[in-house]
Design goal:
Length: 216
Amino acid sequence: MARTALFGGSFNPIHFGHLLLADEVRERLALDRVIFMPLGVPAHKPAGALAPAADRYAMVGLAIADHPAFEVSDLEMRRTGPSYTVDTLEALGVPPSELFLILGSETFLDLLSWHEPRRIAALCRIVVVPRTGSTFDPASAAARKVMREIGADAIVPVDDERAVPECSVLIVHATSLPLSASEIRARAARGRSLAFRMPSAAAVYLREHRLYGWPA
């Protein structure tokens, strides 16, 4: 069974920050594939703030086309109603020891608000990626509470891709570029350059489909 990571998000739009993070996690954990999973109807943010799911899916596909270990899935987009990560993990059918869920540190601390967080932890190994410059402390009361409630045994940093610890929650420090999807949307609305912020093929799609208010 291929060692697999699930990287979910709105990708509204996808940018180089997402891609670099995914590739560094892939290397560190010796992953065979990373599945990018654009949200359909998200459970945690207003759907009205998103570009159409089909457009976000298309941009992800264009952005990752040249990476042999990256895939994009429309599994969550094909669901009706809110999409829950626990359902996606179950649908992938990958053994928990070989399935990883990539989360930002802020998202990890908010995990108890998700649907069936304890079941999520049972279906995969969670990879926490702290934002560069963040104050994420795995020994903090907030982190310990999440670990206790999801039934996780340990939270351990991965310092060497040749020795991935066999534990429930891993910490991987990946490069965090000073990019945000909200900044790219704001630039698009003003018709400003998107160069060096997102892959050119995805940027061309964004402009051609007048996404995020791109001027006619």
